[in-house]
């Protein structure tokens, strides 16, 4: 069976989506996840501007260019350089440095006269720290798994922070997520910011790790967002309080 390098650099067997991606010219099998999500929720066809956070090698950017409104402004951001894709722009930035990354995105928007994005996508996988345990994709021990999910949750919150900076009212935010101890806290945050929040697991998702996608529809665009709402520590407390008050 042919093998591919996974996110943690380990060889993993190729499956039908790897082969389909090669056949159809997509840079990653992940492209099929976005195609499936968009087929279910139809957020791309009306989008005039799409921001893809953690976009390399660019499979989701390719899908965004092909499915969004003709001539849409599509921007991919990643720590790694993204080879040019016709119809899209890219930025080499770290989304955890939200002020710097946000300023770079804003400069690009200003240069094209774009005020906001109708869709913000996030398919990031937290990278392991130097000398640390393995990433979320390869963690085996309990402490490795805990460290990996903490990194992943923090990355999701960085993506949410950037989404709140740029999303248009009624916009859509999609993020990858791994079920973990932060699940309720992050869902609490998303439910405050969006009218509808759905979970989906595209068939192109691998079974390990147990990834899931959160589809957040109709951004409420609040005029002020309390910093606590974007802070995981506070979110844990807020979500516990909200559950207590429901009882
Ligand atoms: C699963 S890949 C994304 C695949 C992409 N959706 C596609 O279709 O090709 C995850 C990406 O997250 C990126 N990433 C992880 N941490 C990041 C960070 N702090 N800032 C920007 N990109 C990051 C990695 O470099 C990697 O390219």
From TrEMBL:
Domain Ribosomal RNA methyltransferase FtsJ: 26-219
Keywords, alphabetical: Methyltransferase, S-adenosyl-L-methionine, Transferase
A GO molecular-function annotation: methyltransferase activity
Superkingdom of this protein's organism: Eukaryota
Active site per UniProt: 176
Pfam families named among the record's database cross-references: FtsJ (PF01728)
Annotated GO biological process: RNA methylation
Protein name: Ribosomal RNA methyltransferase FtsJ domain-containing protein
């Amino acid at each position: 069976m042919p093998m591919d390098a996974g996110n943690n650099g380990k060889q993993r067997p190729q499956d039908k989506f790897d082969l389909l991606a090669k056949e159809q010219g997509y840079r990653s099998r992940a492209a099929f996840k976005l195609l499936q999500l968009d087929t279910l929720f139809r957020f791309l066809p009306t989008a005039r501007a799409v921001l893809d956070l953690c976009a390399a090698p660019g499979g989701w950017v390719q899908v965004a260019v092909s499915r969004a409104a003709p001539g849409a402004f599509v921007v991919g951001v990643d720590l790694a350089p993204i080879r040019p894709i016709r119809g899209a722009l890219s930025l080499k930035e770290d989304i955890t440095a939200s002020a710097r990354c946000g300023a770079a995105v804003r400069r690009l928007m200003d240069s094209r006269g774009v005020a906001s994005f109708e869709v913000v996508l996030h398919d990031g996988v937290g990278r392991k720290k130097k000398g640390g345990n393995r990433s979320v994709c390869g963690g085996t021990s309990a402490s490795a798994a805990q460290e990996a999910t903490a990194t992943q949750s923090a990355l999701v919150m960085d993506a949410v922070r950037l989404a709140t900076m740029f999303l248009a009212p009624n916009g859509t935010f999609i993020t990858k997520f791994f079920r973990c101890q932060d699940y309720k806290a992050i869902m609490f945050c998303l439910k405050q910011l969006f009218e509808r929040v759905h979970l989906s697991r595209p068939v192109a998702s691998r079974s390990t790790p147990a990834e899931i996608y959160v589809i957040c529809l109709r951004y409420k665009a609040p005029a002020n967002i309390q910093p606590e709402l974007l802070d995981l520590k506070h979110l844990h407390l807020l979500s516990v309080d909200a559950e207590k008050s429901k009882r």
